[in-house]
Structures are given as C-alpha cells and as structure tokens.
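Researcher: Before we compare anything, I want clean individual predictions. No alignment, no superposition, just each chain on its own. First chain goes here; please echo the sequence and then give the structure tokens.
Model: Echoing the first chain and its structure:
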Amino acid sequence: MIDVEALKAYAYDTIGAIHEVHKELGPGLNEKVYQEGLQLELSERNIPFQKELLFHPLYHGKEMESTYRLDFLVNDDIIVELKSVESLSNEHKAQLFNYMRLLKASVGILVNFYPRFAEIERYFFDPENNEVYASDGFPIRKNS
C-alpha cells in the first residue's frame, strides 16, 4: 500500500506552481499558454522537469514504435497533464492513468485551467498492486 499523505506532500511544490500560473494568467486561455507559464514557474522555483516528454510504451519488454507525449514530467515521477476545457472528462483521466501505469509514475496531476478556479486533481499509483488511487486513498480502478 502506498502512503498517500507522503505523496501529497511530495507533490506540494508542483501544485503550488500550478496555482501560481493560474493566478497570474487567469482562466480560459489556450493550453499552450499555460504550458509555457508552468515551464517558467517550475524553472523559477528550481523544480526539475521535462516538458513534452516523448516515450514509447513497452510490450513484453520491447519498446514499441508508438509514442506518447506527456505535458510535464516533474522530479522524474510526477506526471502533469494540462487541459483548458469546459470540464474534465473520463477520457482525460484515463489518459493520465495510462501514462502513470506505463511509466510507473507515483503521482499524476490533472489540471484544467479553463474555469475561474483551476481544477486540480491528484492521483497516486501503486506499482505493486497496479492501481491508481484518488487523493482520499481509495482506488480509482484496477489496471490489468
């Protein structure tokens, strides 16, 4: 079982950077604007990250040709996916959960900058059980 409270603390600085970007830029802009803002904010805070990281999923231990692109990988194991949409959908969540599972990332943050108050959802991955957990510590779904 993962320690959700420890992972929340681990993601705290990244969440703070996201809040600052929304505070500075406001709601309703294009996703790329927020991506650039978050890149600048993470740099200013000296938080290590990779932007638009490409990766190839593995199949039976072999790298596939297919590629995925993460908006951000922070501290090597926090995936941040940015959206600027009217409302977050199950497809947005599924995208994040799959990225977390494929990369064995301990934290996933899904952000919607479109509304007046940024929507920030945190999720946590337990590689032992191959499960994603919500911030309340309950499993979201079983990944098989």
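Researcher: Okay. Second chain, same rules.
Model: Second chain and its structure:
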Amino acid sequence: MLLKDVLAKIDLCCPFAFQEEWDNSGLQVGDPAANIHRVLLAFDFTEAVLAEAVAKRAELVVTHHPFFFQGVKRIDLDTSKGKMIAGLIRQNIAVVACHTCLDKMEYGVSAALGNRLNLQDCAVFLPEASGLGFGMMGYLPQETSLGEFTETVKRNLGLDALRFVGDPAAPVKKVVVMGGAGAEFMAEAKNRGADVYVSADFKYHDAQAAQEMGLLIIDAGHFGTEAVVLEPFMQKLATAMPSLVFMLSTQSGDFWSYR
C-alpha cells in the first residue's frame, strides 16, 4: 500500500480530526507515495526504535506521542533529533503519530487502561459531542482496599513501582482512569463519586490537594497508563489493513527507572 492510503485507513480507525488543537497527530516524516509493507508500533519515536525499524525492515513507524511537538528551526546532525530525522530519510522510513485522537477512541488509551484493570459498566469520563472523550469511569467486580488495588494495578500494568495517596485500608469500588497526565481532573473525579483516580504525572501539591479533598489517587506513570493501548490499536489497524505486517516495538519503554 502507498503511505497516503495507509494514512487514510489510519484516519478511518482513529480520525485525526478528533485531536486537540494543540496536538500534532498525523504524518511526521515520510513520502506519501512510498510503498508500505511492514509497520512497527511504538509508544515514542527514539533512536532505539529507529534502529529496531531498520532491523525489522519496517517502512512505517506508528507512535502514540508525536515526534514533533514544537516547530523545528534547524536539523543539526550532532543532536539526537537531527540524527533521527536524517536516519528516517536515509532509510526511507515514515513516522505517523496518533496522540489525543487515540486517547479518545472507544478502544483508546483510557478504555484499554480500564479493560486492563477489569473495570465493569464503563462510561466515558469526559465525553465530547461525538460521544468520545477523555478518561473512563467504571466499577471493580467487587469492593477491595486501596492497598490491594495498588497491587492489582502494578501486576496488570507490569509495573515495578507506583505512587499513591490515601489509607491502604480505604475501600475502593468506583474507579476513574485517565491515561497520561490527568492531575487537572482530580476534582471532577471526586465530584463524580470516584473512590480512586488512576492517572499519572501528579506533582507534590496535587497529592496534597487529593488528600485534602478525600480522593484516593494512584500514579501509575505516563508510560504505564498509556502503553496498554498499543496492542488493541495494532489489532484494529491489522484488521483494517490485512495485507500489511504489523509489529509491536520491543524497544519502546518507560524513560523512568525504579529501584
């Protein structure tokens, strides 16, 4: 398939028009007339992912986070970014990002996170006019404690560690999840009756605010709460484009390390 046709199929599965106005989903680098046979899915585009794409003969890398967020004023091959741009062009590899549009899809980031945590009777937490939106709200199969739920989150997301605020013995039943940075929606989660709010990138004073408002929170990391979408997204794309080979990156991981 030509890259322009692959882009059209991706747009049907995850419409770029749903992205936030500040976002930069869509084609990052590439020739729309290039032939695509093999596609690698990764969370971020890094030098390690580029090397993996070359080794696996992928002509296209589809990422969650955009390779370009801010404007590019120069391409300096002494920098990591410059080396990656040059490598993409030399190797004829394209990059496409599906960011906030993928966050909102019915199989997207928070839906995948809710599924991984076994939430039931789910609904979109912050719905838009389309019916899609950010976050997911649902219920655990049975009430548990915050301490037990943190262990479930760690196990089901494959995490070495996480942060939480609240009494480990506190009961948990109603859960709101928001993949990625979701601190700004803590008060809304509390107002909607959530026992616990699972998201990422909380700051110190967010933790203080959560404690003051009586909201249990779990910070499961940006990567931990969002990377769960890659597999269902790949399945969606593979169904739409059965003639292509799709692969999940093994070099796409958290930038944080824990010990």
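Researcher: What stands out in the second chain?
Model: The mean pLDDT is 97. Additionally, The domain at 3-102 is CATH 3.40.1390.30 (Udp-n-acetylmuramoylalanyl-d-glutamate--2,6- Diaminopimelate Ligase; Chain: A, domain 1).
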